[in-house]
Amino acid sequence: MGGSRYPIVGIQAGRGKNGEVPVKMEVDDWWASKDPMIRNQHTLLFTALTKLYEASPHDKLSFYQIAGIHNQPIVPWDDTPFENKNYCMHSQPNFPTWHRPYNLLLEQRLYEVMINDVIPQFPKSDQADLKNAADVWRFPYWDFATKKADASGVRNYNVPKLIREKEVEVRVPGGTARIPNPFYQFTMPDGLTLGDEKLGANAVTREPYTRTRGTSRHPYVEGAKEDEAYLNEEHARGIQNNDGVKEKLQEWKWEGGGSVTGSLRDWCYRVLMVTPFEVFADDKADPGESDTGRYSSLEDLHNVLHDWGGGKFGHMGAPAVGAFDPFFWLLHNNVDRLLELWIGLHPKEARDWVENDSDAVTPLIPFRKDNGENYHTAQSVWHAEDFGYTYPETQRWRAKYQTDGKFDENKLATDLAQLMNKKYNSAAAAQRKAFLTTTRDAPSDKTITSGIAAALDQAPKISALIKGIGGLATSISAIPDGKIEEEILPDIIEAKDYVANVIYEKYALDGHPFTIRFFIGKVPEGGFNAISQALTQVGEIYNFADPVEFDKPNCENCAKQARERVKITGQVPLTNALLTRYKQQIPHETDSGEKTVLQGMDPEHVVPFLKEHFHWRVNDNQGHMVDESRITGMKVSVAVGTAYHHSDFTKLSEFTAYKILYDITENNSSGTGAAPQDRLFSRDAIFRLASVLT
Ligand SMILES: [Cu+2]
């Protein structure tokens, strides 16, 4: 590429006449498709990505260097001014907007390789079809928050089927061939390791990844000695424990129904409800955030996916080398989709930020707009259509989104609300199910029915319905006719909503990643291996950080955040896990061996229950348990708020008015207490149990 710059413009081919742009596909749909055009895309992508893997790590457009932009190696890319190096934009509002041109860079480069290197190898008679397939191809996304059926028809969260395949079949001139699947893992060219001295300044320096030639997912096998990790040949080549990833993603059901663990759908939905943009976008603690209960963010959700994708010693878990795993790109295309969905759901808030906030014009280095020194900004990358793509849910040109021939943002927002409610709103689904399974015999639950007292009078009708389907309303989908459901369900279900919040310093362990796990129930003894598989874990927060070595070249953004001791917030929803415990009357053993059962969803029941059964633990990403006192600035709190779920699916659920339940955490040194030195919450954000009881 000589001295010329590499501007990011996306793929401009494949546009329609009326503003249509190619629509990205969910990776499982894309991979399962039998459409000959998509099958051609399989060949094109697998062949092009393999070529980028094989390109010299000294070539700026090799996969190695593109992956390296994310963090390591710490060298300038595309001759950007190094003193301004600010490549990995984490823990700041440009987290999703920086990753947008980053995704586009790989997509655009792959398209160029398809057009210039792959298609010309085929006979002339094939080239037109291949070119058409390339023009409408866009990098697929992995919708991690949608359950998919496995081979036996059981629906749960899972890794993309594509990343499990060791080999894939591709077309070659005159026939087909089986090649190593580039989505199975990345392998360095020419037998190099990531930290090979032949790479000079271009080498990765983060241990233990320097010694690897291929990427790994959950490579750690129980029983292996700690210090042997990555010293053996198998680890260096790459171990893909995709079932290890799957296990982390999955939701665990109680026999009688309901989830005992957290749910990705729930988390995803709640993240999309967070406003304003700067709170939604990144995991950094925003001023005033502690008062509002808005601890959740897109980045925070994404961080956990990095942990689950990489696991102990896996590449995805470390910012330094996270982008080397091709899985990263499927994940990050979905992060980009969530950004696009948020923009569509909150058009006014979106405009507010992108038009007025100074962060919206911060250069997104190293991504250039043109051949000169003009860099993209959040403003310049805001409209995905400008870069020649969109997602299935945001096809703005569709007739149903027009008013008087013009795009109407409110029509899209309403449509998206409906879609998000159907796809991800498991908080509302759980409350509806709980409501429908409330009979006169069941323990009365004033939380679920509060404000809708008349609803309880409907109980005979509900019982009839339950009898009608064999005595058990096992799930909302088992109810045959949606109309019956509508008759019974009130317009609004108001429910108590419980969340666990955590705030901590990102560089607490000198910037090493760590996981904060939350449990309702017993925390098993036996260290990392035992707790990382505990079914009592209801959620976790992952500190997706990278150690800063002040004596070496560093990501300047990270160094600055380390000096400023930046604080991160995270949130895990607890409501559904609690609701299952209550509805199924699941016994929980106390320290003294007594069995207790949650008796209701109001704070007077939940507070003493959680005081006994809510716990948290910290481990680093090398599998060591970490004493909580080492996580500087860490405070865990549980809050109760109110959720409003509407029977009108065009209305979004509201999660609001959170107050901190000090009683649950105050006896733990890393828990939030009422002590003034916590200074986390203002007085009106406190909910003392005593005030409920009197
Ligand atoms: Cu990421």
Describe this protein with a few key phrases.
single chain; 694 residues; alpha+beta; di-copper center containing domain from catechol oxidase; four-stranded antiparallel beta sheet; 25 helices; 16 strands; 34% helix; binds copper (II) ion; Di-copper_centre_dom_sf; metal-binding; melanin biosynthesis; Tyrosinase_Cu-bd
Description:
Its cofactor is Cu(2+). One of its GO terms (molecular function) is tyrosinase activity. Belongs to the tyrosinase family. This is tyrosinase. It catalyses: 2 L-dopa + O2 = 2 L-dopaquinone + 2 H2O; L-tyrosine + O2 = L-dopaquinone + H2O. α12 (326-345) packs across α13. β5 and β6 (406-407) form a beta hairpin. By secondary structure, the protein is an alpha+beta fold. The chain has two domains: 27-144 and 160-239 and 298-397, di-copper center containing domain from catechol oxidase (Orthogonal Bundle), CATH 1.10.1280.10; 260-297 and 425-694, no CATH class. Helix content is 34%, strand content 13%. Residues 439-484 have low confidence and may be disordered. The N and C termini lie far apart (74 Å). The protein has 25 helices and 16 strands. It has a four-stranded antiparallel beta sheet. A four-stranded antiparallel beta sheet has the order 9-8-13-14. Strands 1-2 form a two-stranded antiparallel sheet. It binds copper (II) ion (CU). Residues 302, 306, 322, 332 line the site of copper (II) ion.
